[in-house]
Prior knowledge:
The protein is an all-alpha fold. The protein has three helices and no strands.
Amino acid sequence: MVQFHNALKHVAFSGRLLRNVFDILVGLGVPWAIQTVAVDYGSEVQINSRGLLYSVVLLLGSVALTILGIHLNRWRLDFRLGLYVMIMYAVFLCFSIMIEYNVFTFVNLPMCQEP
């Protein structure tokens, strides 16, 4: 019975991770596919951010640090790990916002002024 209970924890944890990956892939892929196939065939979706590379590197780094944190916590989900992940998410958001607002380097044009 203990083995079954532990297996359910692993299934729930991996299901939670896979759901987020699925949501991101479908949430980005389906609208882009509809735009480029059904609405305006052969068109391209323009992404107006030169900071996208920085955001991707930051995201991959945060995933690596999250996996490292889970490993250092001996693959146990507890309050400390939850607090660690929440702090990592807050740091990720702060850095992403600062990148988009040109705090570190110039990646986006300034916003247009209202007349």
